[in-house]
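User: Just a sanity check before I run the rest of the batch. Below are the structure tokens for the first item. I only need the designed sequence back.
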């Protein structure tokens, strides 16, 4: 092993130990006794708890090649195995038996995140999502009336689905580039997703193993259909805010590049105004979203220590100009996620 690679592994193991200590305190009340954490060259397993030698192993390929979300999900999964084994002393059940599943559910841990990875569910897995995709394809029409009607119908279908549908499970996904600093526009989009797109969102730290650096991303949680749609809206609105900025920089209310974030923030606010108005109209038809208590419980279990921060937003003429432009935005067809694109879910 080269000195550089050895240094990378040493830094990574220190990071995994820090995550282990935090999760032990937050999810298991500090009842786990720290084991040896090691990397393995296994191609068959992403991770395993080896009780006899008190060793928690993670696949070397996993920790260096996959997103940090997958790494920490496998780590938490193996910590749950350790808890069942050493704290509860349950040894008369299968590895993923009733006690293990209960512990994972209570603590917001993915009980599937072990064994060989399999591809995430494809875009056709959810019939409702596919219907919404078709409507959004119409929302790309050059005919503004047709586009607006399709968008309203897609919004109504999403609302109706989330009112009538009983969730059978939730998934998580990370949005954003951990190598870049977040900004006001991105946080406005995230706030919109949290408010109107049936997902829970939180900003979380991640570790970039090959660069030995830390960063932050946004984690969204919800049903498969809602996570897919929220991810599409996130990418679409960031791209749209950038496009409208370039198209309208000569607006008399825009003073120059320093107004870029204010203008783009206004675009997001204007788009929100439009969706809120449509939601109000739908409320008159009896479609009222009252929330998803199970998702709230899943979110709280996954993030037992949540802190909130407030920020002041500067509203100026450029922001108002962007807000006007945002009210004209129509959702367009999502970009399909190919077999090699997007993030895989770990199932076990």
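Assistant: Here's the designed sequence for the first item:
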């Amino acid at each position: 092993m080269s000195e550089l690679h050895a240094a990378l592994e040493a830094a990574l193991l220190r990071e995994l130990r820090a995550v282990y200590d935090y999760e032990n305190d937050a999810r298991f009340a500090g009842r786990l006794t720290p084991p040896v954490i090691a990397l393995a060259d296994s191609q068959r397993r992403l991770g395993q708890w080896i009780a006899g030698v008190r060793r928690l192993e993670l696949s070397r390929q996993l920790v260096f090649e996959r997103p940090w979300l997958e790494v920490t999900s496998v780590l938490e999964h193996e910590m749950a195995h350790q808890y069942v084994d050493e704290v509860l002393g349950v040894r008369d059940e299968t590895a993923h038996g009733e006690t293990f599943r209960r512990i994972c559910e209570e603590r917001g841990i993915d009980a599937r995140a072990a064994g060989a990875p399999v591809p995430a569910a494809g875009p056709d897995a959810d019939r409702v999502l596919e219907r919404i995709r078709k409507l959004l394809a119409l929302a790309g029409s050059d005919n503004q009336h047709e586009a607006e009607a399709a968008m309203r119908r897609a919004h109504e279908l999403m609302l109706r689905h989330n009112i009538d549908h009983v969730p059978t499970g939730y998934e998580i996904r990370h949005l954003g580039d951990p190598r870049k600093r977040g900004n006001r526009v991105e946080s406005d989009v995230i706030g919109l997703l949290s408010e109107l797109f049936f997902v829970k969102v939180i900003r979380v730290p991640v570790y970039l193993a090959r660069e030995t650096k830390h960063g932050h991303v946004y984690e969204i949680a919800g049903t498969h259909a809602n996570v897919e749609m929220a991810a599409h809206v996130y990418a679409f609105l960031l791209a749209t805010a950038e496009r409208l900025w370039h198209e309208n920089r000569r607006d008399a209310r825009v003073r120059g590049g320093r107004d870029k974030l204010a203008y783009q923030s206004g675009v997001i606010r204007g788009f929100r105004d439009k969706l809120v108005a449509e939601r109000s109209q739908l409320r008159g038809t009896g479609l009222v979203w009252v929330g998803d208590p199970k998702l709230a419980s899943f979110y709280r279990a996954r993030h037992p220590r949540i802190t909130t921060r407030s920020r002041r937003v500067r509203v100026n003429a450029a922001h108002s100009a962007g807000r006007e432009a945002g009210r004209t935005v129509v959702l367009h067809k999502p970009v399909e996620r190919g077999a090699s694109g997007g993030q895989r879910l770990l199932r076990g």
